[in-house]
Hints:
Elements (H helix, E strand, L loop, with lengths): L1 H35 L3 H26 L4 H24 L14 H21 L5 E2 L2 E2 L1 H23 L13 H32 L6 H24 L3 H25 L13 H21 L10 H20 L1
Antiparallel strand pairs: 1-2
Helix pairs in contact: 1-2, 1-6, 1-7, 2-3, 2-6, 2-7, 2-8, 3-7, 3-8, 3-9, 3-10, 4-5, 4-8, 4-9, 5-8, 6-7, 7-8, 9-10
Amino acid sequence: MWLLLFLWFQFFFCSALIFIAGIKLSFYADVIAEKTGLGKSWIGMLMLAPVTSLPELFNGLSAILYVSAPDLAVGDILGSCVFNLLILCFLDVFSGRLPLTSRINAHHTFAAGFGIIMLALVGMGITSTTSMPHWKWIGISSPILICLYIVGMKIFYKTDKKTVSNETNSSYTDISLSSSLQKFSLSALVIVIAATWLPKVGAALATATGLGQTFIGSILIAFSTSLPEVVVSLSALRLGNVDMAVSNLVGSNLINLCLLAIYDVLFLAGPLLAFVHKNQLINVFSAIMMASIFISELNLHPRKKILFLSFGSWAIISVYLLNLGVLYYLK
């Protein structure tokens, strides 16, 4: 009984730390964007996305190096990609009268498009298994994923730079750049530590409550690993930084997929994707469909919502629910 209460205390304590630090992280990212003159979309891609993706990195490294469970590491990455796209729907709820896709810059299509290409490459690797070309134990998809990430970031930076306003916002004159960088780093450290510990507590809770092998247990752990993205993106939206909130999510997906290349180098048994269960393709296909819906609606620029959500958001939610249902059935 006391053990269960202690586990719940740890779970809510870590969640509270992530919530508080996430709000601070978004705030100081906004300050840094103003002080440096960089676009808020670029700051979200360059600074927020890596921070919110670090827990996935540490969890994946643990699965590869200590547990030797490549399927678990890849599943965490692909599952996070799917959930990050679902978070766009949460942002849509709080975006006001207009749909989220009508309030953001069109250059997000470049990042989302590169995400689709990287997802397709991962899907090819899972499907082809050992027939894919490889050098020693490293699959050919790994260097391609890194190249795609670099090229995608370069293109996103150039397109975002063209949309940055030349007007200077003086709302943060009392905060220095050095101070905001220090406090941003401190908030990032708190998030990384709490978010890395939270899944472990979630897994222990799932076992202690008898939910370890159930669907609810999986949801609990999925929530814990995606909490940083949720908090940081919603905090950025609350500050009015819609583009920063979206670029954090889309950028997190690009970084997550790039992490597979790191896992591949460290997994010495052979090409990483050759050891992944074919059921992971469901996550790949779902993420591709969800990203495609997002891009399509971004180009259509809708002006109306249906019960607090745009039509595209309802479609993304439908794909996510279908993804959960198929995975649960195949399980």
